[in-house]
Amino acid sequence: MASEDFVPVTADDWYQRRRKDAEGEFFRKVASQGPRKGENDGTRQGIYVMTADGELLSFKNAGQNAEVTRDEIKRALAKFKNLPASRKNPGAVTVEPAGRLDPNYSRTPPPGGAILRTFTRILEKSGAAYSKGSCKTKGGDMAARDFAWFTAEEVRALVPAKAEVGFEYPLPKPIAERLTQFHLIDNTRGEPSFWTREQVRTSNFTLTVSAATAESIDLRLDGQATMATDADIAKADRGYEVRVLGTLRYKPATGTLDRFELTAIGEHWGDTDLTRGARTGRTPLGVVFSLVVGEKPSDRVPPQGARESGRYFGK
Amino acid sequence: MFRRSLMGLSATLLTTAAFAAEPSLSDAESRAVSRAVRPASSEDAFALIPWETSLWEARIKAAKLGKPILLWEMDGHPLGCG
């Protein structure tokens, strides 16, 4: 239904309710027809059905019973079909280009850089086997998603000084900091808190050349990191001790990566105001990263950490 | 000079000890973790929907196709936060 009868679109309300451009004004105009008018900069999150010319046809809080939401969307579709042809037929409404986007509240991937897709999940360990974990928080056992962005300059900094098998060198600091502060986190129960630079207590990542030809350089990435809210790890109310292993492939001809697979596993403990309901004590948390090669809009969703883009990119 | 060398040696030994206590992640363990973390197709059905991520682009498309817009908006991007 979502694909055939609608134009489906997703958005982060943090940007939408703040952006000062045509898209933001349009969204707020539609949302204000419903119950969430954004008083005191409040959230407008939810599931909306609207017309291209800006009439709200339905609104539901997200996370409600799926059947209820589906019925509401069906009713909205029926309302749309009852509109006059001058408002619903293909081409009946004209929408001009959006014009200038608010640079403070729009994000695009760094040109020539790399995008990684990440999944994070609570796990159980039995011997050498890992399986999905379970928790009391609804949806907390599902794989959480995010994206990681790296600039072209950061990608080029991955190139070894010597393209010789066995040559070892440290992972460039900006990449190590991005991974530890923004991506080795527990985002399985909602909006996560990121680690500050000080909360990254140890971080040792090594790249090793595993193969090198004129066409490509293969790298192995391994290491470990400890993030904790207290310098005394035993006293930290939240932390993550993690090991990583990955493989990268750099293409000198294009200056790009065509492989970046990374797995992280370790024990996580604690939660934050927005992610209550963590399991008790230290429990396994896994994070996997893989290179995005697609060009779909859904492949270019900004990292959660990029809301504060200066901090995210280490500026 | 000697004192600084000793401090450097101590730091090296401490770092080495920390690494020794925390073995590297093996290829087999990495594969096992990756399999357990990645979503099964059954739990990822919403990702098959061809979501737009610009409401304005969705407006243009909806006007052209004669369809309503279905907007899923969350604090934290629905396709990229948790």
How are the secondary structure elements laid out?
The complex is a heterodimer of chains A (315) and B (82).
Chain A (H helix, E strand, L loop, with lengths): L1 H4 L1 E6 H4 L5 H10 L14 E5 L5 E5 L5 H16 L3 H4 L25 E13 L2 E4 L11 E7 L1 H5 L11 E3 L2 H11 L16 E13 L4 E12 L10 E13 L4 E14 L13 E9 L17 H4 L3
Chain B lengths: L1 H20 L5 H11 L17 H11 L3 E6 L8
Detailed description of the structure:
The complex is a heterodimer of chains A (315) and B (82). Chain A is of the alpha+beta class. Chain A has two domains: 2-105, no CATH class; 114-312, no CATH class. Chain A is built from eight helices and twelve strands. Chain A has helices at residues 2-5, 13-16, 22-31, 66-81, 85-88, 152-156, 173-183, 309-312, and strands spanning 7-12, 46-50, 56-60, 114-126, 129-132, 144-150, 168-170, 200-212, 217-228, 239-251, 256-269, 283-291. In chain A, strands 4, 5, 6, 7, 8, 9, 10, 11 and 12 form a nine-stranded antiparallel β-sheet that branches. In chain A, a hairpin with a 4-residue loop joins strand 8 (200-212) and strand 9. The longest helix of chain A has 16 residues, at 66-81. Chain A is globular, with a radius of gyration of 23 Å. By secondary structure, chain B is mostly helical. Residues 1-21 of chain B have low confidence and may be disordered. Chain B has helices at 2-21, 27-37, 55-65; one strand at 69-74. Chain B has three helices and one strand. Helices cover 51% and strands 7% of the residues of chain B. Chain B is elongated. Chain B folds into two domains: 1-38, no CATH class; 45-82, no CATH class. The interface between A and B is large, with 88 and 58 residues.
